[in-house]
């Protein structure tokens, strides 16, 4: 949850606002980052799309709860396997490693099913949005979930995002401590 504070701050700094922005998570869309981004997007009024193979889709209970929250915030929550539809008009594309901690033994399997969901320059161009941004919570495995070309491109904001993590966590600490 604290990571998405940095993610949303980065989107706002880069694009000027959150509400109504289209944020697409590409890859293993049932992982902790995709779920946290979906919940945060539902609360903050973003158009969130989780895109990946059906076998790695978010639990339907989480999707249903986010859609319920979205009715109040004006958010849109989508889950799809269709990468072209998912990224069309995206303001931000987000990805994460293909094998989360504790799942390293599944990397060969994940590489096989997630290769069509790699964030590469063709995918960036498929957004049709010259001002879109790329996000990643780091560390990244370049050549798997994201290409070096995208990681080092003008679209990349992962290092701004990492810096923002420091600031948002300090803000959470100050808010949590209260008056001393």
Q: If you had to describe this structure to a student in words, what would you say it looks like?
A:
- With 180 residues, the protein is of the alpha/beta class.
- Helix content is 47%, strand content 13%.
- It is built from eight helices and five strands.
- The chain has helices spanning 2-15, 32-44, 60-73, 83-87, 107-114, 121-126, 148-151, 158-177, and strands spanning 22-26, 47-51, 76-80, 92-95, 133-136.
- The chain has a five-stranded parallel beta sheet with strand order 3-2-1-4-5.
- Helix 1 (2-15) packs across helix 8 and helix 2 runs parallel beside helix 3.
- The protein is globular and about 50 Å long.
State the strand order across the main sheet.
3-2-1-4-5
Mean pLDDT: 96
User: Total strand count, please?
Assistant: 5
Q: Encode the helix/strand succession as letters.
A: HEHEHEHEHHEHH
Q: Quick one: biggest sheet?
A: 5 strands, parallel
**Proportion of helical residues:** 40-55%
What global shape is seen?
Answer: globular
> What is the beta-strand fraction?
5-15%
Oligomer: single chain
- Unreliable runs: none
Measure the end-to-end span.
25 Å
Helix/sheet category: alpha/beta
Distinct helical segment count: 8
Radius of gyration: 16 Å
Topology overview:
Layout: H1 2-15, E1 22-26, H2 32-44, E2 47-51, H3 60-73, E3 76-80, H4 83-87, E4 92-95, H5 107-114, H6 121-126, E5 133-136, H7 148-151, H8 158-177
Parallel strand pairs: 1-2, 1-4, 2-3, 4-5
Outline of the structure:
Helices cover 47% and strands 13% of the residues.
């Amino acid at each position: 949850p604290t990571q998405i504070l940095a993610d949303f701050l980065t989107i706002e700094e880069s694009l000027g606002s959150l509400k109504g922005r289209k944020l697409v998570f590409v890859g293993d869309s049932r992982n902790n980052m995709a779920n946290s981004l979906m919940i945060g997007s539902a609360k903050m009024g973003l158009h969130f799309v989780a895109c990946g193979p059906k076998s790695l889709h978010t639990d339907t209970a989480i999707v249903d709860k986010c859609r319920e929250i979205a009715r109040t915030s004006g958010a849109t929550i989508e889950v799809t396997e269709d990468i072209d539809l998912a990224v069309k008009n995206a303001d931000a594309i987000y990805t994460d490693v293909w094998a989360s901690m504790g799942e390293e033994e599944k990397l060969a399997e994940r590489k096989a099913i997630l290769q069509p969901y790699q964030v590469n320059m063709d995918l960036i161009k498929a957004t049709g949005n010259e001002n879109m941004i790329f996000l990643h919570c780091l560390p990244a495995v370049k050549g798997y979930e994201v290409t070096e070309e995208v990681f080092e491109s003008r679209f990349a904001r992962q290092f701004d995002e990492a810096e923002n993590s420091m600031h948002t966590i300090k803000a959470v600490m100050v808010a949590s401590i209260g008056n001393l």
